[in-house]
């Protein structure tokens, strides 16, 4: 009973939300100590508390045996299907970066393509460091913007096959998305304007009669 999707949950990507995680990975999670001791009877509100305790992201490690708490909480969210407003609050989280990462990962699994770009692309401006647990059980350094880039570009992440994501260009062509404008472009424009103004001032100085 504890491993079943709640009765009120809607279909996601044409299937039971938990089936977005492959059966062998789900089994590893169900058998894990963290799932049995920390995820039992968790509500959407309590997941926030557990998310605040996260210290790294990752999938299955130690010879494909142990799931990370990050992966366990992802499956729990698929099981109980929190309101979308809660997920959006997760990714807007400024203080707890691993809650933002958790919300972004869940959003990538469950939201429509246009919404994924809408909510995740602004996170390219988040350069905070994350700890990544690799398959050997060793920590690596990852930045939030790199994690978001992987969510938008990779087919598989944290040992989960990511649902198909429509190309951004296709969504722009049907007006579901506005063209992407990087914050870096604004910085470059400002830099270019400053340089132009400096060149103009220098030119005026040279043109002054001596």
From TrEMBL:
Residues 200-210 have a biased composition (Basic and acidic residues). Coiled coil: none annotated. It is found in: Nucleus. It holds the Pfam family PRP38. One of its GO terms (biological process) is mRNA splicing, via spliceosome. Residues 185-210 are annotated as: Disordered. InterPro entries: PRP38 (IPR005037). One of its GO terms (cellular component) is spliceosomal complex. The keyword Nucleus applies. Keywords: mRNA processing, mRNA splicing, Nucleus, Spliceosome. The keyword Nucleus applies. It comes from the Eukaryota. Required for pre-mRNA splicing. Belongs to the PRP38 family. This is Pre-mRNA-splicing factor 38. It comes from Plectus sambesii. The lineage of its organism: Eukaryota, Metazoa, Ecdysozoa, Nematoda, Chromadorea.
